[in-house]
Amino acid sequence: MSITPSDPSRLFCAPPLSAPISRRDLLSRVGMGFGGIALADLLGSGQALAASGKALPDFHHAPTAKRVIYLFQSGGPSQLETFDYKPILNERQGEPLPDSVRQGQRLTGMSGNQSSLPLAGSLFKFAQHGQSGAWLSELLPHTAKVADELAIIRSMTTEAINHDPAITFLQTGNQLSGRPSIGAWLSYGLGSDNENLPAFVVLITKGKADQPLYSRLWGTGFLPSNYQGVQFRSGKEQVLYLNNPAGVDRNSRRQMLDRLQDLHELELASTGDAEIATRIAQYEMAFRMQASVPEVTDLATEPAHIFDLYGPDSRQPGTFAANCLLARRLAERGVKFIQLYHQGWDQHGGLPNGIKTQCRETDQPAAALLTDLKQRGLLDETLVIWGGEFGRTNYSQGKLTATDYGRDHHPRCFSMWMAGGGIQGGTVHGETCPFGYNVVKDEVKVRDFHATLLHLLGIDHERFSHKFQGLDARLTGVEESRVITEILKRA
Q1: Do both 194 and 326 map to the same domain?
Q2: What is the pLDDT of residue 38?
Q3: Please, what's the largest Cα pairwise distance for the chain?
Q4: Is residue 119 in some structural domain?
Q5: Is residue 13 predicted with pLDDT exceeding 50?
Q6: Contact 79, 436 (CB under 8 A)
Q7: What is the CATH number of the domain that holds 108?
Q8: CA–CA gap between residue 382 and residue 337 (Å, rounded)
Q9: Residue 230's beta-bridge partner residues?
Q10: How far apart are CA 134 and CA 150, in angstroms?
């Protein structure tokens, strides 16, 4: 059975409208009539269904996570300086990459024309941490302290070798733009646990000019537009165009929206266009957010010891640390999918200094987020993900010296970690070859990652679809993919 929700609060619902109907019929079909809408407003949509005597629909299976916080490291972090220890690269420093290792793999134009591809060992020391004995770089001292919370996947692979298609693939399940993002899929299928905040929120580290991030990465594609991510920003206006203009107070805005809704409902009754209902819902959400957004984004209410936990950057709005703290506050308030983007990992040259900066900005806040969620009893029901769009080569792009080198894009293997809701902490999954170039055990494809994410939220990826251009479109597409059961919490 495919999931094709039209009610944003539930998984199993009536199919989308396909022909004009009357306003009375529309309200009856999507909201149990006026009484059901009023009750939903008072109790929340799930409770309203139960109160009306209708059975609450089930998930495909029992979920182990209620929400997701995805810490996306844009640019492609080097696995060889973080989670995948390869001492042979130091031992054979400067030697050409063996053809038997490369196996004819395509290279980008940035290093494909080099006269040689010299192996480059990491300048940073590694040590084992946690009961699993996971190898982590000295660049990640705070992450090392929470190693037993992590399932580190060292065998991720992707089909894309350049940034835009690779990021689009991770975020939407397709290298071509125009598909719904992960957060949009989850908002569509699971709805929201807080009617005053969006189900899907996006936070981007300020001042990190690197590879561009496009709003389509948190867009809805062919899904209804009310499922798109809402970007929260640092500064005076946290959400663009949310505040009232000068001279317009909240009461005036309410009256304006009421009259606008009357006009929209007349058009809706005439045409049956579901996007008109979406527009009404978006206006109402924006009105409620005028009160809820300033409250949730006011980090000044946090005690000093929490700022100390996340690090000094957490007091500066828009930093990765502040966004991690804000992500916890959003999770507490029932936001379903919280997407953080941190740019700057695209280190084709000057990697040692560049990655030091990146890890300094992200290591403590990411570890603090896990610690903070756990001490509040939220980690067991919150899936936290860390990773980028691909890895980096084991050879140096450009000149290799004793203190400096760069690494090109590498789709054949990279590392990610997952923690929290339903994940077996202290797990290391997958293995790459001694040169850190190819996966030799337990390959995890991007679609496997997506299937696992959905599984943890109670969704069977093969049964979760939306009719588009005559096809039952899915986040995981039509190619074979599997849930990574080896990293799931054991009973």
Answers
A1: yes
A2: 33
A3: 75
A4: yes
A5: no
A6: yes
A7: 3.40.720.10
A8: 10
A9: 201
A10: 10
Which of 27-36, 189-198, 235-244, 262-271 is predicted least confidently? 27-36
Six-digit token string for 179: 């598909």
Whether residues 276 and 362 share a domain: the answer is: no
321, 278: one domain: no
Residue 58: pLDDT band by 50, 70, 90 thresholds?
low
Q: Is residue 301 part of a domain?
A: no
Rounded to two decimals, the pTM is 0.86
Q: pLDDT per residue over 282-292, tens digit each?
A: 777 777 877 77
pLDDT score of 1: 37
In a shared domain, residues 193 and 317:
yes
8 A C-beta contact, residue 287 and residue 261: no
Residue 253 in any domain: the answer is: yes
Query: Do 335 and 249 share a structural domain?
Result: no
Boundary-marking domain end, from 262, 296, 330 = 296
Residues 456-482: what's their mean pLDDT? Answer: 94
Tell whether 71 and 196 lie within a shared domain.
Answer: yes
State how beta strands 200-204 and 150-157 pair.
unpaired
Q: Are residues 323 and 210 in the same domain?
A: yes
Asked whether residue 184 is domain-assigned, the answer is yes
The count of domains in the chain is: 3
Task: Using CA atoms of 250, 251, 252, 256 in order, give the dihedral in degrees to the nearest 10.
Answer: 100
Look at residues 214, 91, 170, 50 and name the one whose alpha carbon lies nearest to residue 449: 170
Residue type at 368 in one-letter notation:
A
Same domain flag for 341 and 477 = yes
Mean pLDDT lowest among 205-214, 225-234, 326-335, 418-427 = 205-214
What residues make up the domain containing 212? 67-237+306-487
Closest CA to 192 of 258, 285, 295, 277: 285
Query: What was the pLDDT predicted at 254?
Result: 78
Q: Once rounded to an integer, what is the mean pLDDT over residues 169-189? A: 96
